[in-house]
Amino acid sequence: MATGQIESWAGTIADIGPMYPFVGTEMIWVIAGVVFWLAWHVIQAKKESREWEEDLRKFGGKQLPGEEYFDH
Amino acid sequence: MDNELASLTVIFTEFYYWVTIPLMFLIHVGFCMYEVGASRWRNHMHTLMKNTMLIPLVTVTFYFFGWWIYFAFPNGPWITGELLSAPWAEPWNELMGTHMGGPPAGSDITADDTAFWARINGVFWAAFLLFSWTAASIVSGSVIERIRPTAFWILAVLIGSFCWIIDAAWGWHPDGWMVQVLGYHDAYASGVIHAIAGGFALGILIVLGPRINKFRADGTPRNINPQNPWMVTLGLFIIYVGFWGFYVACNVPIIDIQSGDGVFYSATNIYLGPTTLSAITFNFLMSLSGGLLMAYLVSNGDAFWTYSGGLAGIITASAGNDLYHPVQAMLIGAVGCWVAYKMHFWVERKFKIDDAVGAVAVHGYAGFLGVVIAGFMLWGYPASPNPEYAHINPLGNFIGAIIMFGVLGFLPGYVGARILHGFGILRVPKEIELAGLDLGEIHNRALDKQELAEAREATERELTGAK
């Protein structure tokens, strides 16, 4: 079993190209990476919304001092 | 890599860019310290994490598409030509991974591609990436204490991995269409990084609105002082240190610049035009000094503005700091600092814009002005070694400054913020903003009465102006 194309460092170094494992499957890794990135945004946004809602619930709808100054 | 001289040249270049990366990392350290120090105690952690998490988000997106944009978009595309092929920058390409430069495994690149890019691609990518972080981090400071992290991180990806790298392809690439047609010159990124980030921040700020209680009922602004002035100034000092890496990364360290017969090795600017590290060292320090001297005078010795003024000085002179005389750099830095300071307070009063750290002024206005000044100061100089390209001129750089600040900065920032506002995710709920954003970000435990009481007490204190 070998995940890469390099079996020995004794050959001609100038002939060595890509050195990472699973050469030829790059597109699959990139798709997985993009999915991970986009999923991160979605999960984070949902968690953040839940947290804000929970905090607002804990405040119990009481008006905080200075609220009347909120001008936006 | 089969003879010593060629190997030394390549490995020196690889090492040169590699060294710039940890230096530029300090810019981000400085920005984090600066922002946290400028925020109020109940927002510290939120402020820190907002800026910190742009690092991974901009990094992965710059890997996925930002780097490719730089090489594919110099023609616009479809302004002066088509989308260019840049297989070495595609995220699935073998040259975007560990590679010794031998024969390619795939058919989309050549042996010349692997020989050239195998040792340069990663460090060059990272040098540009650190600029991406900087662009997003500049924006981060101006919107503290009221923007939702969800929204900010989307906007950070927009500026860090999309807008700024388009402007780099257009105006900071040896064959960018702005260089070719306008004679645009911006060697150390007055416009390419600073004006665009300032414009982007301004676009967001207009939609986001000021922090609660920033403006009195009669519209006059309150000064919300930094919670920790020492941390702010130390952060700015660290940004100065990181700025050295930024300058170094804007150069190509060693390349044969002799056209025609003969050989002459030199450092060049990003356009492959000749300069020296010695020249930029003179000019970096002299423009920093011009900014500091002016800022101290105009702000009556205010530490926050004096340090920021040093940055504004460098930023204003940066567009031409590859060619200016050091005294020119100093005076240009001083002028830019004065303009940035005056513009900040005028815009704040006139338009009720709450730029918490003065980022729009220090980066945006100073960067814009720096590009315009370079158009006059370097009028007639070649913008590129390519004799067919336009020469530097005032109109070309003025149009370039508008593109940087307005078209690629302000407009996407404003539209992006509008969309996020439309979805209701741009700004934190007002109750959370008043109580403090950190209360909303503490996980896995209930808020206790004491925390809430302290938040209310602090809010009351600020509203009444009591100490």
Textual characterization of the structure:
- The complex is a heterodimer of chains A (72) and B (467).
- With 72 residues, chain A is mainly α.
- Chain A is 47% helix and 0% strand.
- The relative contact order of chain A is 0.07.
- Chain A has one helix at 26-59.
- Residues 63-72 of chain A have low confidence and may be disordered.
- Chain A is rod-shaped and about 70 Å long.
- Chain B has 467 residues and is an all-alpha fold.
- Chain B has 16 helices and two strands.
- Chain B has helices at 4-38, 44-52, 54-72, 111-117, 121-142, 149-171, 177-182, 190-208, 229-249, 277-298, 303-318, 326-351, 359-377, 394-422, 430-435, 449-464, and strands spanning 252-256, 265-268.
- In chain B, strands 1-2 form a two-stranded antiparallel ribbon.
- In chain B, α1 (4-38) packs antiparallel against α9, α9 (229-249) runs parallel beside α11 and α10 packs antiparallel against α11 (303-318).
- The radius of gyration of chain B is 23 Å and the shape is globular.
- In chain B, 55% of the residues are buried.
Summarize the structure.
Helices cover 47% and strands 0% of the residues of chain A.
Radius of gyration of chain B: 23 Å
Question: Total number of helical segments of chain B?
Answer: 16
- Overall mean pLDDT score of chain A? 83
Annotation field: number of helices of chain A = 1
Name the helix and strand elements of chain B from N-terminus to C-terminus, one letter apiece. HHHHHHHHHEEHHHHHHH
Measured by DSSP, the beta-strand proportion of chain B falls in: under 5%
SSE order and pairing:
The complex is a heterodimer of chains A (72) and B (467).
Chain A lengths: L25 H34 L13
Chain B lengths: L3 H35 L5 H9 L1 H19 L38 H7 L3 H22 L6 H23 L5 H6 L7 H19 L20 H21 L2 E5 L8 E4 L8 H22 L4 H16 L7 H26 L7 H19 L16 H29 L7 H6 L13 H16 L3
Antiparallel strand pairs in B: 1-2
